[in-house]
């Protein structure tokens, strides 16, 4: 394939198109719609939807309260288990979690719209400023929380309610983690991540310091010295390599970093985008970057994934969403070479893949190429372990490149807990990170209470 000049420019679309393309992709239920949908719930005694929810929200209970007109009580049921229930209602893969387990989810029927009903209830308390929780009586104990994403904020909120003084250290300028920086804008329109952060912090007993990076402005030994306990919810700081030459050539981007730029850009018409986009990966980030570049005016957007559709991290619903937005998805191929011209990427050469008799992925030797003005790496992130060291000596045990934790989210180091994407064994979902923070808060409170009793 002959190399072509990159075609990058801003304002590919009429000015009014940007607001329309990045507006709320799934508008909220009206009052009457919520009542009708709530009445569809069978209020199962042994509800499989509860088991399918990583945070254990009592789903039939909160839906019954909506049907009875008690939105405050409904929101309390949700937020007691998942303090970030408003964002989770928008971004959770409900089709494979609670709604996937719904007894009405059959070929002849459809699942109750649990996510939309959860949004209906939680938005009501955010819209009206109804604070459902309060900080506990001061215990005199201090806890450091590293990372202001879903895991860290969930942990901080739980500890504040127990009466512990919490200090959150966040590397970026805003709290929220991937909810603020890493999710497609049309999924969390209306500044909902920051509104939820403000609501969460309003419980009190939580101090916030931004611009504080672990291993730079703060260190783990320092935090252990100055606080009674430490929770690490710092996320993942590096992206996986494509394994090909010239990965740093102009036009090759980390998808998560580019989504962050998009989310923090006030006027999207000023953001240059290519005409031809290639996204390498198969998870939610691949779907989000592909769909957003398409909505910014890219004409030809292709996701390429090394295995089949059933192996993709993105759900079937998300895959359909991308295709509805004009994104092509090609399976069974992996990058073998980046094509360049004058120092910029001009395309990607792919090798077709197949599985051997034991399921190992192999290249077939057959190749094809796609022209590209921009190439996005969306093949997962890695933990950067250096900030967890002390003078080059590892402080925490790792498991498959992430922090090893037990079921209470305790690490190998006394007085240190971890959760969210940086911890091993998780689902890499907002809702799973919230559950990690919640479990850690319970464990930390038990630890501090015991220490006080013996102190």
Low-confidence stretches are none
**Number of distinct beta strands:** 21
Computed CA radius of gyration, to the nearest angstrom: 23 Å
Count of structural domains: 3
Mean pLDDT across every amino acid position? 94
Q: What is the CATH homology-level superfamily of the largest domain?
A: FAD/NAD(P)-binding domain
Question: How many H/I helical runs?
Answer: 16
- CATH architecture of the largest domain, by name, is 3-Layer(bba) Sandwich
Strands in their spatial order, largest beta sheet = 4-3-2-5-21
Q: What fraction strand? A: 15-25%
Query: How many strands, which pairing sense, and closed or not: the largest β-sheet?
Result: 5 strands, parallel
Distance between the termini: 72 Å
Tell me, briefly, the overall form: globular
CATH C-level category of the largest domain: Alpha Beta
Given helix and strand content, the structural type is: alpha/beta
Compact summary:
The protein is α/β, with parallel strands linked by helices and 455 residues long. The chain has helices at 15-21, 31-38, 48-52, 59-67, 71-81, 85-91, 98-101, 114-127, 150-161, 178-181, 192-201, 220-226, 255-263, 284-295, 316-324, 430-454, and strands spanning 8-9, 142-146, 165-170, 206-210, 229-232, 238-239, 252-254, 273-274, 276-280, 300-304, 327-330, 333-341, 344-355, 361-371, 374-377, 381-382, 389-390, 393-394, 398-399, 402-403, 416-418.
């Amino acid at each position: 394939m002959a190399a072509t000049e990159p075609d990058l420019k801003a304002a590919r679309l009429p000015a009014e198109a940007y607001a329309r393309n990045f507006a709320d992709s799934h508008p909220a239920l009206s009052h009457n719609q919520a009542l009708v949908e709530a009445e569809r719930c069978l209020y199962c005694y042994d509800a499989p939807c509860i088991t399918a929810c990583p945070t254990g929200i009592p789903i039939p209970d909160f839906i019954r309260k909506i049907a009875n007109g008690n939105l405050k009580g409904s929101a309390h049921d949700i937020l007691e288990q998942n303090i970030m229930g408003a964002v989770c209602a928008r971004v959770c893969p409900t089709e494979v979690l609670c709604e996937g387990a719904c007894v009405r989810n059959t070929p002849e029927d459809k699942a109750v719209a649990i996510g939309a009903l959860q949004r209906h209830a939680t938005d009501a308390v955010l819209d009206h400023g109804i604070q459902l929780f309060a900080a506990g009586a001061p215990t005199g104990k201090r806890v450091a929380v590293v990372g202001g994403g879903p895991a860290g904020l969930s942990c901080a909120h739980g500890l504040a309610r127990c009466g512990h003084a919490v200090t959150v250290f966040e590397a970026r300028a805003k709290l929220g983690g991937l909810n603020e920086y890493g999710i497609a804008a049309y999924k969390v329109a209306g500044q909902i991540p920051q509104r939820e952060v403000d609501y969460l912090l309003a419980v009190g007993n939580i101090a916030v310091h931004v611009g504080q990076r672990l291993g730079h402005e703060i260190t783990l030994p320092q935090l252990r010295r100055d606080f009674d306990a430490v929770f690490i919810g710092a996320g993942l700081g590096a992206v996986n390599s494509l394994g090909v030459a010239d990965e740093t050539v102009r036009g090759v981007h980390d998808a998560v970093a580019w989504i962050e730029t998009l989310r923090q850009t006030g006027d999207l018409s000023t953001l240059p985008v290519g005409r031809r986009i290639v996204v390498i990966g198969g998870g939610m980030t691949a779907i989000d970057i592909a769909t957003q570049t398409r909505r910014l005016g890219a004409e030809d957007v292709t996701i390429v994934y090394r295995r089949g559709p059933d192996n993709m991290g993105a759900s079937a619903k998300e895959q359909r969403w991308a295709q509805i937005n004009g994104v092509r998805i090609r399976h069974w191929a992996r990058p073998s070479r980046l094509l360049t011209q004058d120092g910029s990427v001009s395309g990607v050469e792919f090798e077709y893949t197949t599985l051997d008799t034991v399921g190992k992925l192999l290249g077939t030797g057959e190749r094809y190429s796609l022209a590209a003005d921009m190439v996005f790496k969306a093949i997962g992130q890695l933990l950067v372990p250096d900030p967890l060291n002390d003078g080059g000596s590892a402080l925490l045990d790792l498991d498959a490149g992430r922090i090893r934790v037990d079921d209470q989210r305790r690490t190998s180091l006394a007085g240190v807990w971890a959760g969210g994407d940086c911890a091993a064994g998780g689902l890499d979902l907002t809702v799973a990170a919230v559950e990690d923070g919640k479990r850690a808060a319970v464990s930390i409170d038990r630890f501090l209470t015991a220490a006080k009793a013996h102190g």
